[in-house]
Amino acid sequence: MHKSSKYIVNWCNKNNIDTLIVGKNKNWKQESKMSKKVNQNFIQIPYQMFINQLKYKCQNRAINFIEIEENYTSGTSFLDKESPTKEYYNKSRRKYRGLFISNNGIKINADLNGSYQIIKKVSPNAFSNGVEGVCLHPIRINL
């Protein structure tokens, strides 16, 4: 957890990112409905510890740290300019773990769609002039 959180904070600092937004849901592990084996591995991840480490490392580097509930972000469409609210929530557009399909049939990575929606919860006008300047480029890191 320390190595991963340090990597993220160092990356933010190196790339002049002044705000880190982290989405979280209460009881998300308790309500997990994956297979038994996947659930057992998933439940063991100390996510709150990871969040706490990110938070204090951000504070040490003067990076704003924002933790927010991520309700309705995975079932609402960023591409369709929907607000991440219950009114627009339609989980059926998330076809499987990595794929979200907009109302117009455009495919987008489901986690990326959710991340954009989390940002909109914090700053509703963040994308009023488009997506330029937002750093959301998913990469896999092996530490």
Structural commentary:
It is built from four helices and five strands. The chain folds into two domains: 1-69; 70-143, no CATH class. The longest helix has 14 residues, at 47-60. α1 (2-14) runs parallel beside α3 (47-60). The mean pLDDT is 83. It has a three-stranded antiparallel beta sheet with strand order 3-4-5. Strands 1-2 form a two-stranded parallel ribbon. The chain is an alpha+beta fold and 143 residues long. 34% of the residues lie in helices and 15% in strands. β4 (99-101) and β5 form a beta hairpin. The chain has helices at residues 2-14, 36-43, 47-60, 110-122; strands spanning 19-24, 64-69, 94-96, 99-101, 107-109. The N and C termini lie close together (10 Å).
Briefly say what this structure is.
With 143 residues, the chain is an alpha+beta fold.
